[in-house]
């Protein structure tokens, strides 16, 4: 993928499991990495990721801190990129938060925060990045939706609503950008080995009074027939493919990587 050496990729939520794996996959192809997250740039995790991406072969690495729940913060993030003359060629909307709770007990503020970060921020980031992509006549938008953008699960009303919205937005923006050298796709992972599911694993472990491994098998097998957590690197490989030239005719899709979850 030699064409990526002159491209910049912006990954939101870059310090998470899937986000960092995608950054690493693109770094190995020589792309410029713009890593976003909400933690302070002085944090050890940021310095560690930057060092790993540089060592992997990234053309350069830039870290941006922003609260994606704030429209103003998102606009400021893109304004800084333009001041630094960093175009966004590939946008990966990956940042997400989750809370499991029955609808009747769901804290209203948290419900709205999940929608803001998981869906509204995708709209704002996409709208901003498309300015660069349309000017250059080339671009890739890759939205990390979820299997919950295709099917529902109990006690996840905010997450399911947001991820269904991401899939719908993906399809609509793909139609708006068709024929402009821009593709817009969603990846829909099932149970993936990331920190976001840790609370659910811990809750299942306590309920079963079992080992963590047994709790994972019990939890995952309820929905995902293959019974195993998906490595973030596998999701990253799909994101890398969608950023490539051979995927230029793939747009408006919602691709499951879910161990058979959505087969029925």
TrEMBL record:
Key words of the record: Oxidoreductase
GO molecular function, one term: 3-hydroxybutyrate dehydrogenase activity
InterPro entries named among the record's database cross-references: NAD(P)-bd_dom_sf, Sc_DH/Rdtase_CS, SDR, SDR_fam
UniProt keyword annotation of Oxidoreductase present: yes
EC top class named in words: oxidoreductase
Residue ranges crossing the lipid bilayer per the database entry: none
Enzyme Commission identifier(s): 1.1.1.30
Matches recorded under NCBIfam families: PRK12429.1
Family statement drawn from the similarity comment of this UniProt entry: Belongs to the short-chain dehydrogenases/reductases (SDR) family.
PANTHER family per UniProt: 3-OXOACYL-(ACYL-CARRIER-PROTEIN) REDUCTASE (PTHR42879), 3-OXOACYL-[ACYL-CARRIER-PROTEIN] REDUCTASE FABG (PTHR42879:SF2)
The protein's name in its UniProt record: 3-hydroxybutyrate dehydrogenase
């Amino acid at each position: 993928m030699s064409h990526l050496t002159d491209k910049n990729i912006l990954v939101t939520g870059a310090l998470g499991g899937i986000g960092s794996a995608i950054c690493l996959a693109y770094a190995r192809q020589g792309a410029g990495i713009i890593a976003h997250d909400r933690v302070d740039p002085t944090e050890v995790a940021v310095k560690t990721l930057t060092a790993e991406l540089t060592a992997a072969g990234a053309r350069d690495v830039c870290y941006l801190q922003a609260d994606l729940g704030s429209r103003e913060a998102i606009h400021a993030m893109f304004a800084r990129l333009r001041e630094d003359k960093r175009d966004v060629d590939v946008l990966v909307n990956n940042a997400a938060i989750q809370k499991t709770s029955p609808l009747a007990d769901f804290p209203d503020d948290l419900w709205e925060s999940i929608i803001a970060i998981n869906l509204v921020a995708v709209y704002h980031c996409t709208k901003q990045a498309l300015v660069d992509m349309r000017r250059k006549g080339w671009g890739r938008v890759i939205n990390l939706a979820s299997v919950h953008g295709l099917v529902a699960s109990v006690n996840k009303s905010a997450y399911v609503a947001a991820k269904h919205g991401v899939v719908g937005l993906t399809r609509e923006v793909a139609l708006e950008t068709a024929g402009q050298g821009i593709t817009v796709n969603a990846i829909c992972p099932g149970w993936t080995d990331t920190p976001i599911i840790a609370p659910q694993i811990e809750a299942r472990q306590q309920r079963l009074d079992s080992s963590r491994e047994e709790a994972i098998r019990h939890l995952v097998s309820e929905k995902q027939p293959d019974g195993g957590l998906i490595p973030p690197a596998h999701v990253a490989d799909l994101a890398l493919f969608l950023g490539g030239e051979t995927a230029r005719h793939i747009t408006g899709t919602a691709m499951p990587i879910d161990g058979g979850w959505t087969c029925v």
